Structure formats: C-alpha cells, structure tokens
Amino acid sequence: MESQFGLANLWNQGDLITRGVALLLLLMSLATWAVIVIKALDIVRFKRNARAVQTFWHSDDFAAALITLGSDPANPFRALAIEGREATAHHRNTKGQLHESLDVSDWVTRCLRNCIDEFTARIQSGLAILASVGSTAPFIGLFGTVWGIYHALTAIGISGQASIDKVAGPVGEALIMTAIGLAVAVPAVLGYNLLLRRNKAILDQFRYFTNDLYATLVSSAKK
How far is CA 52 from CA 62, 76, 83, in A? Predict the structure, then answer.
C-alpha cells in the first residue's frame, strides 16, 4: 500500500499548485548546489593563484615576476599585474592626450581600481542567488504547508467527519513541504556565509597585492 506521507504521494495526490511549489523548491535546490560547487572551485583556484604571489616578489625583474603567476588569463593576480604594467607604459608613451593631465600615480590608481572592482563583482557573483534562496525557501515551503492544511480542511468538510484517513494525506503533504523548504534553505544560508568569509580572505590578499604592485609601478615610473 502506498504511503500517504511519502514524496510519491505528494506528487500523485497534489494539485497543480502543490506540484508547482515542489518543482520550484527543486529548482532552487539545484541552483543552490550549483552555485556552491562552482564558487568553491573558484575559491580553490584563487587561493592557488594567491600562493604564487610570494614568488612574484622574489623575481629579478617584472617580466620574470609575471612568469611566476602562470599563463592562465583567468588568474586575477596576473591580470592585475598586466593591467598595471600596461597602464604605466601607456601613460609614459602617449603624448597629447587628456589623461596626461593626471599624475602617473593617479592614472595607475584608476586602472588598478577598475581591476579590483571587476574582480570583486566576479568573485561575489552568485551569492545573491544563495541569499535569495535562503530567505525565501522557508516561506515557499510554508505556503505548501498552508495549502496542504487547506486540503485537509476541505476533505473534512466534504466527508462531514474528521477521520484520520481523510486528513492523513493532506497533512502528510503539508509536513513534507515544510521539510523540503527547510532542506533547501539551510544549505543556501550555510553556503552563503562560508563563501562570504572565503571571498573576503581572497579579496584582502588581492588588495594587499594591489597596494604593493602600485608602489612598485609608481616608483619605477618616476625614476
């Protein structure tokens, strides 16, 4: 005999709204885990890139230092170093353009700040999905719960008696929807907090590298 409290019963006995809520929670769960996995892999890669920075500062010249950062175009530290080098060379070699009114330190600062903003947006992408899922999934599950209880009350009204066989299915459906909503929300909240802390640590390392790179480029440009 099919259980009145299982997921199969939730789908088979549920109406269009119940199935829609269940599908929505499933999609939210899939999006949550996809973001968590992708961002976790990004963090591992960025931490590996950050470790190479120590070798960068022990190189003989800037060209050799750039090699230590590898050839991956997605490496934010490498992209920052190249942007700083090109900004310095561009300011030095172009004449008669409006940006010449800027001091070389201001010009390099502007270019490096753009890189920081781009990387910040890149590393924080996807966190809004986790925040949205974590804050809305419990309420969507609660809506499914309310809808299940409504079915239970409707069954009681039609039958004229509050027998257990009339209300067990809808009540079980309501409880399952509550559990699903919480099961979707909890990983999203935990993943958001964990990724937020890891992102902050990487951004701090990126800003430290930016400050040292700025000082190196500007001092060499003014010689």
Answer: 14, 12, 18
Q: How far is CA 199 from CA 72, 128, 195, 204, 209, in A?
A: 20, 14, 6, 9, 15
CB distance 105 to 117 below 8 Å? no
Give the whole-angstrom CA distance, residue 189 versus residue 181.
12
Round to whole Å and give the CA distance between 102 and 83: 17
Query: Is 170 or 64 the better-scoring residue by pLDDT?
Result: 64
Does 2 score more than 60 pLDDT?
Answer: no
> Rounded CA gap, 49 and 134, in Å?
30
What is the C-alpha to C-alpha distance for residues 109 and 112, in angstroms, rounded to an integer? 5
Residue 205: count of CB within 10 angstroms of its CB: 17
- DSSP classification of residue 60: S
> What does the pLDDT look like over 47-60, one tens digit per residue?
988 888 888 888 88
DSSP category for residue 205 = H
C-alpha atoms less than 13 angstroms from C-alpha of 82 in its C-beta half-sphere: 13
Token representation of residue 153:
């009350």
pLDDT in tens, 19-30: 888 889 999 999
